[in-house]
Amino acid sequence: MNFENMNIWCWLIPLLVGVICGILGYLIGKGSSTTIDNSAELNILKDKNSKLQADLDACNKKVSTNTNLGASAASFAAGAVAASIPFDGAAAKAVFGKTIKQDDLKVVEGIGPKIEAMFKEAGIKTWKALSEASVADCQKILDGGGKRYQIHDPASWPMQAKMCYEGKWEDLSKWQDEHDHGKL
Q1: Nearest-CA neighbor of 153 among 179, 178, 117, 171?
Q2: pLDDT in tens, 46-103
Q3: pLDDT by residue (tens digit) across 109-135?
Q4: Maximum separation of any 2 CA atoms in the chain, in Å
Q5: Mean confidence (pLDDT) of the chain
Q6: Residue 38: which region, alpha, beta or left (left: phi > 0; alpha: psi -120 to 50)?
Q7: DSSP letter assigned to residue 154
């Protein structure tokens, strides 16, 4: 046996095995990758966004024309806003499958018992008060609770509270089902 030629084979065999494994790995990896095309869904969402923007512009235009009303119409509108919307517990129970108490802030997705206590301590005790609070005010209340509560996102809480106050239980349930943990 010639030991001079054996030294070449000790290098050549592992090198060939490595090259073959590299080529096979590349081919297997390239063959299993698929590209997901979300362009159709993106276009649908862009259309929906443009429709919502058009609705928002129409509402803003309507609000600006309503501010030009006479004093009697403005006083009538203020009286209409001052009227309280009655709470319908049966409708809420029909949608959520459990008894809902009036002004229970825990109905808003993202608010639990401790956050509800913080809001009530800060003077926000009703759905109406929460619906009129700004997101910045909600965040200030959460920041006052320490790092544990700063991670919560109150961006949708006033909107959800408004749905509760107005008795739009089906809309609230649908919105909460569509959004993960109340995030916009």
Answers
A1: 179
A2: 999 999 999 898 888 888 776 655 444 444 444 444 457 888 888 888 988 889 999 9
A3: 989 999 999 999 999 999 999 999 999
A4: 115
A5: 83
A6: alpha
A7: -
In angstroms, the CA 167 to CA 59 distance is 21
Amino acid at 141: I
Q: Residue 2 region, left (φ>0) first, then alpha (ψ -120 to 50), else beta?
A: beta
Rounded to a whole number, what is the distance in angstroms from the first to the last CA of the chain?
76
Q: How many CB atoms lie within 10 A of CB 108?
A: 26
pTM for the structure as a whole:
0.53
Residues 179 and 170: their CA atoms lie apart, in Å, by 14
| Residue 116 CA: distances (Å) to CA of 61, 126, 184 | 36, 10, 20
Residue 67 CA to residue 64 CA, distance in Å, equals 5
